[in-house]
Amino acid sequence: MRAGGSASGAGAAVEISGLIKRYGRTTAVDGLTMACGRGEVTAILGPNGAGKTSTIEICEGYRRLDAGTVRVLGLDPADPTLRPRLGVMPQAGGVPPAARAGEWLRVVSRFYAHPLDPGALLDLLGLTEHARTPYRRLSGGQQQRLSLAAAVIGRPELVFLDEPTAGLDPQARHACWDVVTGLRDAGVSVVLTTHHMDEAEKLSDHVVVIDHGRVVAEGSPATLTGAERQLRFRARPGLNLDELLSALPPGSAAKESPAGHYIIEGQVGPQLLATVTAWCATEGVTAEDLSIERRTLEDVFLELTGRELR
Amino acid sequence: MTTLDFSPRPGAAPLPRMVLAQAGAEARAMLRNGEQLLLTLIIPVLLLVGFSQAALIDVDGSRIGFITPGILALAVMSTAFTGQAIATGFERRYGVLKRLGATPLSRAGLLLAKTCAVVAVEIVQVVVIGAVALALGWSPHGDPLWVILLVLLGTAAFSGLALLMAGTLRAEATLAGANLVYLVLLGLGGVVFPLTKFPEGIQPVLELLPITALTQGMRSVLENGAGFPTGPVIVLLCWTVAGLGLAARTFRWE
């Protein structure tokens, strides 16, 4: 995976600076500044209502911004010359319910000068046998895949995918990932939103975490999760960690989150492991699922955006 | 698994190809939709057969000669107004218009495609209704050019009203409203009931309705062989300007 962070500059696929979008009294996007590199996959993460879709829809030219600047491939998002250069997959819908999958994709392909072959694309996404099925009779996952097919059929330079794998089964999710990887390998810039941290970790060069309409962290998945390792184990809830902490070297941290799941951070090595297991022995507990791991993107995400439900 | 060349090669297709593709899709959708066919073909043909065969109304001259121009006007209204309003309302609701906005097909191109699709369905309607009427002994008069002019103007006027409704109301409200307007205009517009059956006081008001203008224009040419239908053309032009003008100002794409 390539290192992120090279996203800014004149060559960026998307450049957003000080973006503000309000709906009535609600401020959905509140001074957001970020950039998506050309030829890179950028994942935008954020809780529901963080401003992901508003931001993407402003880039797609669907919505007007209230303040700030947005440049897409160096142009104003409303510029009509951008339309053939962009591929768009909305979060849901966009297809007439009675339209047959294959026919509709063929119609969309006729809008472009050098489209991919609709039949081959249906095949790639496992939709060939549903080519004659009306959109409303497709399963949610099939509808998503058809929408993805339409987003890439015009051979765009930049693709926006708004939650492309929401509601997909594992097979369909992998098919979608293959398309995203294929796009990147072919030099297409991809901007996607997702709630799946593993997806962001696996697919993207650059991750942007937004919350309350602002960027709270960005970088490559590796820089965001950091090099630091953690020791994790499961045991009965409510253990008193004070004694353990006093036995650990200074600078270590121990917490229970969620109940029954313990995380020890610090200089994770043989010494720390021995201290922890010795403490477990005096407490009379068996540490289950004991493991030493790097933090996941999900840990980082929850740390940045909190655990409250939105 | 197939491998596809995703390397960027963006470009818009020529406008005629885009418009034709979209128009084809819309025409297919209209002709496949059962409820739409009920309004655009089945009801008009049933009315044509019923009112020409049974003495439900008394008219001077032949019943089929009186009823056919009215049914042709009704057919134009059913496609350009009712069908188009309902279809566009639901396209807006389902995000279809928004999605099309992200393709190289411009809004002007989309409206052109819709018009082409409506005209294509109207051609099917005229052929079917005309064939049934001829089989029932209809003998049309007048200059076909004036008929084509009236149909196109009627299409423009009703399309403006359809887009005005679909672009401002909720899809369900458009569905209910467009069907209601269809029924009311069918009853009041001289389609099957002659205008002379209404109280004299309201006749001049009814004559200002787009359906009445279209019906009377069609009847003057096809039944009486009259020349350029000035009055109806002026009324339809006014509705076109008002309807399309208001729709252009108020239409919400999502």
Layout: helices, strands, pairs:
The complex is a heterodimer of chains A (310) and B (254).
Chain A: E1 14-23, E2 26-36, E3 41-45, H1 52-59, E4 67-72, E5 86-89, H2 101-109, H3 118-124, H4 140-152, E6 158-162, H5 170-185, E7 189-194, H6 197-203, E8 206-211, E9 214-219, H7 221-225, E10 229-234, H8 242-247, E11 253-256, E12 261-265, H9 270-283, E13 288-294, H10 297-305
Parallel strand pairs in A: 3-7, 3-8, 5-6, 6-7
Antiparallel strand pairs in A: 1-2, 1-4, 8-9, 10-12, 10-13, 11-12
Chain B: H1 15-32, H2 34-53, H3 63-93, H4 96-100, H5 107-135, H6 144-166, H7 171-188, H8 203-206, H9 210-222, H10 230-250
Helix pairs in contact in B: 1-5, 2-3, 2-5, 3-5, 3-6, 3-7, 3-9, 6-9, 6-10, 9-10
Describe the structure.
Chain A: This is ABC transporter ATP-binding protein. The complex is a heterodimer of chains A (about 300) and B (about 250). Chain A has about 300 residues and is α/β, with parallel strands linked by helices. Chain A has 2 domains: about 15-100 and about 150-225, Rossmann fold, CATH 3.40.50.300; about 225-295, Alpha-Beta Plaits. Chain A has helices at about 50-60, 100-110, 120-125, 140-150, 170-185, 195-205, 220-225, 240-245, 270-285, 295-305, and strands at about 15-25, 25-35, 40-45, 65-70, 85-90, 160, 190-195, 205-210, 215-220, 230-235, 255, 260-265, 290-295. Chain B has one domain. Chain B is built from 10 helices and no strands. Helix content of chain B is about 70%, strand content about 0%. The two termini of chain B are about 35 Å apart. The radius of gyration of chain B is 20 Å and the shape is elongated. The longest helix of chain B is centred in the N-terminal third of the chain and has 31 residues, at about 65-95. Chain B has helices at about 15-30, 35-55, 65-95, 95-100, 105-135, 145-165, 170-190, 205, 210-220, 230-250. Chain B has about 250 residues and is mainly α.
